[in-house]
Amino acid sequence: MFLRLRQLCLVAGKLEPVVEDLRSVFGIEVCHRDPGVGQFGLENALLPIGHSFIEVVAPVEEGTAAGRYLQRRNGDGGYMVIHDTDEIHQWEARMNTLGIRIAATLEVDEYRGLQLHPGDTGGALLEINQTGKGGSLEGAYHPAGPDWQSHVRTDVVTAVVGAELQSDAPEALAKRWGDILERPVVAGKSGFSIELDNARLRFVQARDGRGEGLGGIDLLVPDAEVVRERCRRNDLPLVDGGVLVGGVRFYLGTGDWRGV
Q: Comparing C-alpha atoms, which of 256, 255, 249, 246 is closest to residue 77?
């Protein structure tokens, strides 16, 4: 069964400023706004990059889990790491075997998602989902709406190829996620990593004073300097050769995802 990185979610105090920054810096467009997130006291927007998605959510009510997360991590930043699969029932059985609680089960038409309890996973809110029988990355993906393919723009960025989880104990977090996702952990010079079928999860030491969480996203781009210049024009910071948008570090690679 496959396991692919499909969607990364940011949480923001205000939705539209972060969405506009993503659009301006990366040349991407909103494909869908899901009214269903209102049940969680949120509003959202999804923006495709190739076959993957960046989502931004923002609380519109008091007392939401997202609002508490904003306070805990001192502002806008990474929130969720979302995978898709072709065998959601096997993953559900695995979580039961491991004693990982399912915080929420999402079911709409042919879509089914499992949000795992962050107290059992650490790092970030982790989700695995399946649409229909799974399959082509160009096919239906319920969270992105019925016509996401027509909104794909790849002039400036072409793919999401990884996520960076930061922690005061990155090795322990990597091993925990490796156990959950049934993938080996590889130790490297800059930290620890887990390879999925289309991307890499990296686990690094937290150094920004914001604690454990989704701190970075790896992108493939035709020209990194184009992205950096767009960031300068929008008065957004440059960090580690990449850019900082919505409280998240976006790293800019120009080769195959395995080389990022």
A: 246
